Structure formats: structure tokens, C-alpha cells
Amino acid sequence: MRPDEFADSLYRESPPPTLYHYTSLPGLLGILRSGTIWASEARYLNDSAELIHAFNLMTHEVRRRLAAAPGADEQEVLRQFGEWIEIRSARGPMVFVAAFTQHGNLLSQWRGYCPPTGGVSFGLASAHLAAACASTNFALGRCRYVPAEQVPLITNLVEVVTAFATRTGPADKAHPNQSYHPSFALSEEAILRVAVLMKNVRFQEEAEWRIVSRAVSDYVGTKISYRTGASMLVPYLEFSVTNMDRVIPIDDVIVGPTPHPEAATESVQRCVAQHMQRKHGPLTSQYCSIPYRSW
User: Fold this and answer.
1) Fewer CB within 10 Å, N side or C side of the chain?
2) Do the beta carbons of residue 13 and residue 141 sit within 8 Å?
3) CA torsion, ordered 128, 134, 138, 141, to nearest 10 deg
4) Which whole-number Å values give the CA distances from 47 to 42, 78, 97, 151, 184, in the listed order?
5) At what angle do helices 72-91 and 52-68 cross, to 10 degrees?
6) Which of 44, 129, 57, 92 is nearest to 215 (CA)?
């Protein structure tokens, strides 16, 4: 199996019928007006260990294999892969993700991804999201949190990448100490697409599904946008979530904790209904009813 085939296999799992995206009220208006969701570069997300967690797991697996490797050739491939991982974990190509979840009304999501008194989550059919991905360079995949899932996947990933490097052989034009690095570079997109689905177990409650881009190396020619974060500029790509009628087919809207639940829910419902140009249909709106007070 090639590294890209292994990465693709993680994105074939069927998601639940509806996936939810949490955002602020200004964020909702921006999404409705533009028809797009912002997919941020993985290294700039709220979880400061994005990608690093998966690369640490890979490093551990490489060291385990290196200690048991019987032959000099196998040892050399593993040694170089370990060095390559250390270099590329922070400086590799960009990969962009947009977060969805199976749960549309989760307190940790309201607190983590929405401002106090001004958050919403809206549900989209996973079939619609999958179709939107199919027409772009994105794919929809489920995040893995527990070691029982992560370790076998990382073990297989290291096996596939090092086997590919062994079949490809050392590059004549590369320095002898980095002769397998060109082969690892050919596997880098697959490595990133697997790594971005590995999250710390402490985030397990989120039950996150991600829209994941292909790797982006050309940061000049690619149409990357930037927004201001708390301490840095955050790169992002726009991902279209509109249908053939150029509207976002929202199935469900939930308003987060607010001191004015009835008015807030009604205005959000009317806004989304106007966007979809219908008063009735599958769209439902409700208040979260969580007794959490942030005001």
C-alpha cells in the first residue's frame, strides 16, 4: 500500500447524518453572506499540540522499531525518518481544517468556540459536506482520540512510509545522511492528512469531524487569506458550503447560552430562513437550554 492510499482510507468512514459547526453571531452572518467556512491552518488552531501529538507518536514508533531493527539498511531508513520527522513537524507544508462535531449542543463547545452570550451551532447534512469536499481538494474525516485507535494507525503509517522509502531507494543526488529524505517528502502529504486526525484524548468529548485540505506548499501562489488572532496572523482557506441554489442548506440551528433566549432564537431563525428563502421546511431552530450563565 502506498502512503497516499493509507491516508485516503481514513477518510472513507461514513459520518453521522448531521454535523454541526459552532461559531459566533458575526461568524454566522459572515458564513451566510459568503457561502463559505474558514478552514484554518492546523498549526494555528486552539489546540497548541495540533500535529505535534501525531509526530510525537511517530517518533516513539520509529524509536521502538529502530531498537529492534535487525539490518543496517532498515536502521538507516528509520534513523533518517526520525530526523526528518523532527525537522518537518514544525516547518512542513500547510494543511487547512474546518471543525464540525456530532454534537450540536455541548457546553464545552459553547465555552471553547463561541463568545459569551453570542454563539450558535448549525447543522448540515454530512452528505452535503461530503459532496462539497468531492468538488474541491478537501476530504471529510473523523478525529481519533484514544490510544487504542491512534497507536495502530501510527504504527501502520510508519510501516507504509518506511516501506515506500525502502522500495524507492536512496537518492543519488542527496547527501548520504539524508538520502531517503526525498522519499519521505513524497509521503509528506499523506503523513499530514493522517496526523491532522490525531488529537489529544482530553478533547474526546468534542467528537470532531474535520474537513481537511490537501497539503499546500506554495504559500505565494495559493489563494490563502489571513485573519487576526489573539497574538498572530492565522492563515485560512475559504471552503464553500453552498448547494446548487447557492444557499447553505442548513437543517438545524441551536442558539447558545444568552440572557435573551426567546428573542435571540427568533432572530436567528428568521435570518437563516431569509438566507434559505423559505419559512418552512427542514430548518429547525431552538435554544440550547443549558443553565450556564456567562453574563
Assistant:
1) C
2) yes
3) 60
4) 9, 29, 13, 20, 26
5) 170
6) 92
Other CB atoms within 10 Å distance of the CB of residue 133? 18
Q: What is the pLDDT of residues 142-160, one digit of tens each?
A: 999 999 999 999 999 999 9
DSSP letter at 42? G
Residue count of the chain, please give it.
295
What are residue 7's phi and psi, to 5 degrees?
-60, -45
Question: What stretch of H or E contains 189?
Answer: helix 188-195
Using DSSP's 3-state secondary structure scheme, residue 270 falls into: helix
Sole residue written with cell 450556564: 292
DSSP secondary-structure letter at 106? -
Backbone dihedral angles phi then psi of residue 198, each to the nearest 5 degrees: -100, 120
- Measure the CA–CA gap between 237 and 224, rounded to whole angstroms: 5
Residue 40 grid cell? 484554518
- Structure confidence by residue, pLDDT tens digits, 184-241: 999 999 999 999 999 999 999 999 999 999 999 999 999 999 999 888 999 999 999 9
